[in-house]
Amino acid sequence: MGGYSILGETDSRAISKWVGAMQKLVKLFSAFCVATVLAQVIIVALAAARGNIKQDTVVKAIALLNGVDFVGDGIEQALINSREAPMPSYEDIEEERARLDKNLELRETAIAREKELTQIMLAELQAKDELFTRRTTEFYEALDRKEKVLQQQGLQDLQLTLESLSPEQAKDQIVRFLSAGRLDDVVAIFKGMAPDKRKKIMGEFVDQQDAEDLHMVLERLGRGEPNVGLIRNARDSSPAGTSE
Q1: Is the pTM higher than 0.70?
Q2: Each residue of 98-107: pLDDT tens digit?
Q3: Is residue 111 part of a domain?
Q4: Contact present, 70 and 60 (Cβ < 8 Å)
């Protein structure tokens, strides 16, 4: 009787442990089920909040939570469809190649046309630039000619004024011009005077300084100044004179 009671006590302990383990498994399984349901509820709630709640969306969400991969099935189906798609024929390939060649030809034609238009515009721009340069040069040359005419006219007026003065007064003014460095103007004035007027004014240069001043004037008159100097300057400033 004593041995039987010990065996019964051991069995009861084993049974108690087994029952406790089963209870824990039941609790874990229940928790897992509850978590799954909560996850489904959350996904459906998010879809509803975003306005994506549709039957297809709900089915896919439940399928994914239960281990069914619709995306993988879709990829597999796409691969199957690609294998079943018919191969293009030689005529289809040639037609596509001709279409690509035509597009390339049209692009090359458009590029060539734009290049030609650009060259035309560049030529027009160069022509306008040359015209502007020529007109600018002509304008400044006209200004130079006008300036020379006005200077010549001014010297002629000055010459007439000096001729109207007495020889002594005219000599005094000419000395002042020489002191101001206007030797060429004095030479031009003397050259344009009548011989008798020039003789009377030059007769007033009597002292040593006057004689030196008169010598400078006569020397330049003998060299053909100021006309020779103007011709020389024009020749030196011309393109031909510069190249030489």
Answers
A1: no
A2: 889 889 999 9
A3: no
A4: yes
